[in-house]
């Protein structure tokens, strides 16, 4: 009861997501109505997935779906459910002409053959990132990336529409299904976070103008892979652990990109998924993990690179390609690049 009273008080002065979109739609470089439809579709799907994630322990949606995705990863039932919900919700809107998903081998073309089809946007999603944490009740997330198509409106969407560099994104964001459910997104005019009041199913602006601290004291990496990392990455990790100046830093790694990224954006820190002798390009996918998180990071005054170049400048060649990923507080990412580039 106290929580609800507190929440009501906290949200009395806060803008809802719907009000925020309307108040800020003029800053969206394209038609305001299109942005509203896009974000509203994602908002609806997020609420449905949030409901399923929160009751996962109660009904039989835990455990593997008995299938594997193109990544060769066991598909968790909630992965499949989240994928279906986002695709279904986006299809129902008259705005999206194509969808690519971590859980789909190829992109999905949406009635692009209809000569009246005027849908202009493609959406790329990781429907439930960190899904291996589902059965152990650790927070997971959805990541989305939105582009305008580059092939003619009214023609079938092509792979070219999806293989655009990250700096062409018109919007990107994530939903974190954690101790509270939040939707964090950017349309290129800063980053704003909205917290779901589950009692009434409304997202309220709780974190306006989110920004990475210029530096921080948290480094996030799976140190179990340490022996397989390039020497420059090993040297940076040892730098983080050295008793000198503002170090040693604190190691925090949840195994859920959205959760580690979100914490580091609030507290300051760096998230790393380097290449290694066991994963030649690292693990994270460029199109629906690294690009959207990099767009958010840069809009929040942070930095995102593959160790050598901006993530957002990489020209994609494949739908599911992987890249090394260093993302977070600018000073920390720059320092990591210095160590890495000593060896190239
Ligand atoms: P590892 C989840 O599968 C994910 O894509 C990210 O959310 C997470 O940061 C990373 O992989 C964890 O991978 O190899 O450290 O277990």
What do you see in this structure?
The chain has nine helices and 15 strands. It is α+β, with helices and mostly antiparallel strands and 344 residues long. The strands form three sheets. Strands 4-3-5-6-7-8-9-10 form an eight-stranded mixed β-sheet, sandwiched between helices. Helix 3 (32-54) packs antiparallel against helix 4 (77-91) and helix 6 (231-241) crosses helix 9 (330-341). It starts with a helix and ends with a helix. The chain binds 6-O-phosphono-alpha-D-fructofuranose (P6P). 6-O-phosphono-alpha-D-fructofuranose is lined by residues 129-130, 132, 222, 255-257, 283-284.
Per-chain topology:
Blueprint: H1 2-12, H2 17-24, H3 32-54, E1 64-68, E2 74-76, H4 77-91, E3 96-101, E4 108-109, E5 121-129, E6 140-148, H5 159-162, E7 171-177, E8 181-186, E9 191-197, E10 202-207, E11 218-220, H6 231-241, E12 250-251, H7 257-267, E13 270-273, H8 286-299, E14 303-305, E15 325-328, H9 330-341
Parallel strand pairs: 3-5, 11-12, 11-13
Antiparallel strand pairs: 1-2, 3-4, 5-6, 6-7, 7-8, 8-9, 9-10, 13-15, 14-15
This protein binds 6-O-phosphono-alpha-D-fructofuranose (P6P).
The site of 6-O-phosphono-alpha-D-fructofuranose has 9 residues, from loops.
From the alpha-carbon coordinates, what is the Rg to the nearest angstrom? 20 Å
SSE class: alpha+beta
β-sheet strand percentage: 15-25%
**Which word captures the global form?**
globular
Strand numbers in spatial order across the main sheet: 4-3-5-6-7-8-9-10
Global mean pLDDT: 90
Biggest sheet record: 8 strands, mixed
Measured between the Cα atoms of the first and last residue, the distance is: 58 Å
Uncertain stretches: none
- Helical percentage: 25-40%
Q: What pattern of helices and strands is seen along the backbone?
A: HHHEEHEEEEHEEEEEHEHEHEEH
User: Could you tell me the number of beta strands?
Assistant: 15
């Amino acid at each position: 009861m106290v929580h609800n009273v507190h929440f009501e008080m906290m949200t009395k002065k806060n803008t809802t997501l719907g009000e925020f979109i309307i108040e800020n739609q003029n800053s969206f470089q394209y038609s305001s109505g299109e942005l509203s439809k896009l974000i509203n579709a994602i908002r609806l799907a997020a609420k449905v997935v949030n409901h399923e994630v929160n009751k996962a322990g109660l009904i039989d949606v835990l455990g593997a779906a008995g299938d594997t995705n193109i990544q060769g990863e066991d598909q968790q039932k909630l992965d499949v459910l989240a994928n279906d919900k986002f695709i279904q919700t986006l299809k129902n809107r008259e705005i999206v002409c194509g969808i690519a998903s971590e859980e789909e081998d190829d992109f999905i073309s949406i009635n692009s053959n209809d000569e009246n089809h005027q849908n202009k946007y493609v959406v790329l999603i990781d429907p439930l990132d960190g899904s291996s944490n589902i059965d152990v009740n650790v927070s997971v997330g959805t990541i989305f990336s939105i582009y305008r198509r580059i092939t003619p409106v009214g023609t079938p969407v092509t792979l070219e529409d999806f293989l655009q560099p990250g700096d062409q994104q018109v919007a990107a964001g994530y939903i974190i299904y954690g101790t509270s459910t939040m939707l964090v997104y950017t349309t290129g005019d800063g980053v704003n976070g909205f917290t779901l009041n589950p009692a009434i199913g409304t997202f309220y602006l709780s974190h306006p103008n989110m920004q990475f601290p210029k530096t921080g004291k948290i480094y996030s990496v799976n140190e179990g892979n340490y022996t397989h990392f390039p020497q420059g990455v090993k040297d940076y990790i040892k730098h983080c652990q050295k008793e000198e100046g503002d170090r040693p830093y604190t190691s925090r790694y949840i195994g859920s990109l959205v959760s580690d990224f979100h914490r580091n954006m609030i507290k300051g820190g760096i998230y790393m998924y380097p290449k290694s002798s066991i994963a030649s390009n690292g693990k994270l996918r460029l199109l629906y993990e690294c690009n959207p998180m990099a767009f958010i990071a840069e809009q929040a005054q942070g930095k995102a690179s593959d160790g050598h170049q901006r993530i957002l400048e990489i020209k994609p060649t494949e739908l599911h390609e992987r890249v090394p990923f260093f993302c977070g507080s600018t000073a920390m990412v720059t320092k990591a690049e210095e160590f890495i580039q000593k060896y190239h």
